[in-house]
Amino acid sequence: MRYAGIAKMGYYPTPLNMVEKIRDRLVSSGPARWFDPCCGEGEALASVAPLDAVTYGIELDGQRALKAKEQLDQVVHCGYEWARVEPAGMQLMWLNPPYDSQSGLGGEIFRKELIFLKDLTKYLAPDGVLVYIIPRYTLGSEMVSTLVHRYTDLAVYRFDDDEYKAFKQVVVFGRRRQRNLTSSKEMTEADRQVKNELLAYGKDENLPMPYLDAPDGRRWTVPTAENIDTQILFRGYILDEAELRLDLAQSEAFKVAANMLMPIDTGSTLRRPLLPFRRTHMATLIAAGALNGAVGVGENRHMVVGMTRKIVEREVVVNDDGSETIIDTESYVTAVRTIQPDGTILDLQ
């Protein structure tokens, strides 16, 4: 990638006039989750998603993530590798990945477009729609095989001439298979035909390819999401304050702590017992702190604070061989602390 592309983190937004033509190829069948794992400022997904869609975006750059939050329903600021996303939770994935390559083990070179496709396909539900925007020259053998094994109903269209010049971008539409193909033997004749077509487009850049607005009548229907109102897993690696509050509210440990630290009924009072308390009852109530506060009338008025202390008694036993065994015995002692009007403090136990 050139230095300018590195500075942008591979960010080259889809031209809005091409976004409109892509939108014309999509049909909404009802409320669904629309997902862009490289959302930038969120304009592309916000432009194509219908009003009843719930939109999700992932963005690595902090400033662009802030702008995307103004356009999309949910945005996380991190790389997609660190995001926590519900598997098969999305009905449409708009994927415009960085156009670049990276080195793997043994010096092997991999295209990032292919890596993103392999890693992110798992988030698209069966029959979900893929909108994949990539340079034409990346339609090599491995890329095409990955598409055919994971998607059906595939077709590819090119950008208009003015927008095509910079990166030779094309748009691959597809529908997520119910299950991935495991070998070429499972491919149908239609699968082989579209595979050969995609390979031919990638091999020969002069081979005519239909434009996005070609009048072939093909459109892709986005399936409706079941339980669209149900919150799915969609979190980033970098927790913001809102996510942290939500995580704490759903934490079982926090619920236990809340019951201990923030009792529901903070204004509860003791009711008059049916029978008078015995001394042991009074001692238990005082030790528990239930009778803390001012007690008595006039000169006999004083403060009472109940408490329970743990006492450890240690015994050292000398064994026959001369070694020592230490035995600690724990016991709890109930105590009452009184504070007299003149400041005198007495501990009773």
UniProtKB/TrEMBL annotation:
Superkingdom of this protein's organism: Bacteria
Domain (DUF6094): residue spans on this chain: 7-182
Protein name: DUF6094 domain-containing protein
InterPro entries attached to this UniProt entry: DUF6094, SAM-dependent_MTases_sf
Entries under Pfam families matching the protein: DUF6094 (PF19587)
